[in-house]
Amino acid sequence: MIGWTSAGQGRGRVALLAAAVLGASLSTVPPAVAAEQCTVAKAMIAAGDHWVANGTDLAANSWQNGTFHVGNLALVRTTGVSNHKTLPWAQDNKYLLQSDPARPFFPAFQAAGEAYLDLYSFHPDAPVIADVRQRIADEVVSVERGNTGYWDHVEALNMAMPSLARIGVMDGSEPALAAMGKLFRSAERKLYDGGIGLWRRDAGSDAYWSRGNGWALAGLAKVLQVLPSGDPRRPEYLRVFEKMANTLWFLQRRDGFWNTDLLRPWNHGGPESSGTALITFGLAWGVNAGLLDAGKYRRTVDKAWEALSTKALRADGFLGYVQPVASGPGPSSAGDTGAYGVGAFLIAGQQVARLTPGC
């Protein structure tokens, strides 16, 4: 097993190990020096350190903490710096997902699985993903029996879809990938407006929520990242991803944020960082992957990151303007933060760093 190192003399070792695991190439500049020279890396380290030192409800294997730890491991891969929190969190939770017999495949309960899968790339021990793998196997059986409506709110595209894709690809499981396609098409029929390229939060909503659409764009990016180019379902995911990206490009505010209510700019008109960070991740990943035109989207990404890193992020690492837990558009203030907002900021930073000279 790979051990976590301290931020200092061990930074280089963490970065080298992460790069070896992921097949990445490293600059000849030592990671600690590279982090000092890269403003994106410095912002990521500040945000991660502040949350683990001052955040609330850090112990649970919830979707909020799962989202943070996905970002926290993106921080390790990007900067070579570890705050030593993800592995103990996962161990304390025995690598288990949340569960409820009344809702066996509730998407939010699967969100921690993505963090465990990321952790598995550092610690490739079977118990790390055993519960994730079993939950998905059980869900595939249920979907094959005709139960395709589990993804009835847009968050599911990020909470559950990436883990299903990764297990399906890792295990070479056509049934898992087929089940994912059925679940996605059911959600698309109920929630996606193909004419404008945006998702409603749920069937009862008439608003297009920035965080909800951020979840969808991020989830699709994560699926496209792992799905083989020859998979017959890939074109439909890519079609939605590209349509969403174009719409979100058009809707970005002048200050770089996206409004919490995407089509009603007068509704809760202040900055909001969680939706903005998720959208930034998706667009930046698309540029890095060569799926989105850099000439069109690079400025959008840069404006969004500037808003996040200079307006939402304080000098002490506190990330504000994170809309509290909700099921649709709502207000946020400079004093609002949350694990999922910080996690979204960190995955956005990982992709922005890849676009930034010196990082």
From TrEMBL:
Residues 1-34 form the signal peptide. The keyword Nucleus does not apply. One of its GO terms (biological process) is carbohydrate metabolic process. It holds the Pfam family Glyco_hydro_88. GO terms for molecular function: hydrolase activity. Keywords: Hydrolase, Signal. This is Glycosyl hydrolase. It comes from Amycolatopsis alba DSM 44262.
